[in-house]
Design a protein that fits this description.
- The structure is a single chain.
- It is built from 4 helices and no strands.
- The radius of gyration is 16 Å and the shape is flat.
- 26% of the residues are buried.
Length: 129
């Protein structure tokens, strides 16, 4: 079993996404209602879980000698992420009677955007080497 250090990109992205989701949920609770807060957490979780699986799957290998394995892991990880996202959304919509759909989607979109925008900041902008 591989243990990921706390400075690993997948761990940092997970923590940032979780913090943003919880923060947005608190704002939703204060401004709107507890139902909106729960819906934002559900939507954020639908984004966080597949992104975390992807990050841990892809970043298992490092180094130039592992380029083929990394490329394979990238494609497999993306498929895993997309299928997990679809399955989680199916579960949410099947059981979403009490949830606010717009808050679920807002939590999902916000969490995905934060995850995509945080990685370049974590890695120090664009790399030239």
């Amino acid at each position: 079993m591989t243990v990921f250090p706390t400075n690993h990109p997948a761990v940092i992205v997970f923590l940032i996404q979780a913090a943003i989701t919880v923060g947005a949920s608190v704002i939703g609770y204060i401004v709107l209602s507890p139902l909106h807060a729960l819906s934002v957490i559900v939507g954020g979780s639908v984004a966080i879980v597949p992104q975390s699986l992807f990050g841990f799957w892809v970043f298992r290998q490092r180094g130039a000698r592992n380029a083929r394995v990394i490329a394979k892991n990238l494609f497999v990880g993306e498929g895993l992420k997309l299928s997990t996202t679809a399955a989680l959304f199916a579960l949410v919509w099947i059981n979403s009677d009490p949830l606010e759909a717009s808050a679920v989607l807002a939590g999902f979109v916000m969490t995905v955007l934060v995850g995509q925008l945080s990685l370049p900041l974590i890695l120090g902008g664009t790399r030239t080497h």
